[in-house]
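Re: FE2/S2 (inorganic) cluster structure - here you go.
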Amino acid sequence: MVAIALCAFEQVPEGGALGVQAMLHGRSTALVAVRRGAQVWVYHNRCPHFSIPLDYQPGTFSTYQGQLLMCAHHAAMFRFADGHCIDGPCAGAYLDSVAVCERDGQLWLAEVQDGPAGGPSCQEKHHDA
Ligand code: FES
């Protein structure tokens, strides 16, 4: 398994969200990273309600108390820790999670099979939903 760099850990705001673009399986893919303390979770930036981005303008996300990520369109509320929608029109659905790990201040995607060589193994420390 090949890991590729996503962003610096500190770029993800405490209690907030950061939109990032990454090559996954040869396709440029919009992702969103959310952080609480030392934990970061990464999801596809795609609301399960209408399969559209969660941000109301590119890179601008709404979060609540470092716990919830809100879709800008119809206010679905997703838990940081597992992407579960706890309120809104798609309650019960989940965001699509992406496995990441943190090493040396950098977040690495761990699920990329066909990315460029380089980066650490993500098997020891794994932040996952
Ligand atoms: S598109 Fe996200 S709640 Fe409707």
